[in-house]
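User: My collaborator and I are trying to settle a disagreement about how two of our proteins should look. Neither of us wants to argue from intuition anymore, so we agreed to look at predicted structures for both before our next call. Could you fold the first one, then the second, and keep them clearly separated?

Assistant: That sounds like a sensible way to settle it. I'll keep them separate. The first protein:
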Amino acid sequence: MPSPEMTLERQSSQAIGARLGEVHRRIGAAAKEIGRNAAGVSLIAVSKSQPHSLVRVACEAGHAKFGENRVQEAKTKWVNLREEFPDTVLHLIGPLQTNKCRDAIALFDVIHTVDRGKLAQTLSTEMEKQGLRPEVFIQVNTGEEAQKAGILPSDADGFIKECQTLYDLHVVGLMCIPPQNEHPALHFGLLSDMAERNGLSRLSMGMSADFETAVRLGATEVRVGTAIFGPRG
């Protein structure tokens, strides 16, 4: 008879596999509504604060793109997993301090949260030292919330050009986190217009509660945690 631990692990594996399938189905349905190819939407499984065992289950289910908020937590979690699953693509989706840039560049393939000149300069310097050039998104504070990271919309155009020309960062797109008390479509639309104006083709927007809306408005990366792993304890 299987032990309680093995039974729980099997149940978790089945649940995460089913949730991944359901999120992909919903992405496909939302894309179909507006005539998009769902293959143009990358699902980033937000593994921040999730136990190693559940993240492993998602890897074993064949998922390869994961998002983490904190550099140190990601280092601890992925040091062995990445050797075991070498096709993994790691996205930093949380705020980045300049003193963590060296580790961030060494660990992450994509950084979603570039939002100020000092950070851009430090990233540029560290990338040159390490010979690495991860893709970056500029985070825009579309709701102009004082407590939230991100460049203000009024400063975004100039900052994007500065990152591209002065700091030579590989800017691929824009990222936002809409205010909780406002309809996300307004913010997704603003981000989409801003990206188009600056010749950027990728949009990191949409989470568990609103990723379908984001897909309808052009998201190329959606960051989904709870809908895959369940509520964090």
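The second protein, kept apart from the first:
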Amino acid sequence: MTLAIILIIAAALGLIFIIRITVSQRLQIAPASLAAQIQPIDIGAFRNLVDPAEDEYLRRRLLPAQFRSVQRERLRATATYIQTAAHNADLLVRLGQNALAATDHNTADAAHQLVENAILLRRNCLFALLRIYVALAWPNGNRAAALILHRYEQLNGSAMLLGRLQNPASPLRISAGL
């Protein structure tokens, strides 16, 4: 029964992912409009949610039922951060693709790096969300999102580099609280 539920959830998320990619590739939006749609993520709060030491602290301080309840809330919050990271990665892929045609070699290289990092992050977000939704049934830990946090920080660096190369007056920021 549990396996069937997991497979149904995975299939539904996969379908949503495929539809979202198909629709997003059809919509070509101006780069300035894309940058305005980015939702910065509070890296400090995200880091706190995925910190194993914080999980262990809560496990020691709370009764098991309380811990599971708190952990489920933390997992839901983490899923929200990951969905935002995936959304931002999708926007950055399109921004980077628009910048690939730049005549400046440094800008084209930065755009290429940004696209690669954003595609990798977007894929990792899908798998992390699957793991988080499974973990909601058995909330023991929150290890699925640690890789997303690391990749998002890398993507932030790539986005800032491309933003500085394209418009030094107002660099692109996808993170808050650094």
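Some points you might bring to the call about the second protein. The longest strand covers residues 41-42. The longest helix spans residues 64-99.
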